[in-house]
Amino acid sequence: MKFARFVVTGMLAGLLVLAAAPAGAAPVAPAGTTIEPPIGCLPTAARPDPVVVLPGADGTTAQTAEQWAVMTQHLRGAGACVLVFQGGIIDGKRWAGDIPAAAVQVAQFVDRVEATTGARKVDIVAHSAGSIVANYYLKVLHGAPNVEHAVFIASEGGGCDGAGSLAALGIKNLPITPVQVLRTLPFMAPILAQLLPDLATTLQMAPGSAVYESVFVDGPVTQPGVRYAVLASKADTLATPAGTCSFITEPGVTNVFYEDLFPGRPPVDHSTIRSSPDTANWVVDQLYS
Fold this sequence. Notes:
The protein is α/β, with parallel strands linked by helices.
């Protein structure tokens, strides 16, 4: 999760310069670049939908192959055509650019995958911040007709409070969460975005932003024709509250905790859950069982 740093670095500054900020200004972030895999595999009759993997924002693009080796090996072992797409890249960080622009990058890649392979649809497997981009693509950009499954791991949704990100910075036990601040003082988001451009993308994920409202407030998150499944960890201290932050509580969605599915197995957290063989097997089951 990304959207809590503003409490430390920007809240007081935002209040001090309220009069200087244009009312209603929207957070603006650069689009970022992409790293696209070669589309060198073809779907089969048994596995007709290529799997587009959208990693989270943890780590850097240099670490992606190692972070996702277990998942991609399991998917390919199950016969899938697997394509790891990274977008919104700024300074080696995934999804650090404008979220709508990153979703357009995903849409363009999906179009290329379908045109190149002849597939009618793809499956999406997304982790953490990648799920926000995926949901924006599916819902706001009307990408749902191109997608069969949306499988999310430690995803970030409409129920996050931002406290976990502050805790990761050593700031704990505050009387109010970052999300509560923004809901109480919604004018702060555009102010902080102008004062602290590095937070522009972060603030797009926060309540009151156009991105947040369009994905999580204006109608259901889930889209017709797409099969959704979400896996979260009770030990997730970033996407907080655990489960509440990740789960999509709408009809037809599979929402499960790793610990309930795999009691006694090695523990996972927000990041390592995507590298667990148990998680990889669960993803394969969601796609092909």
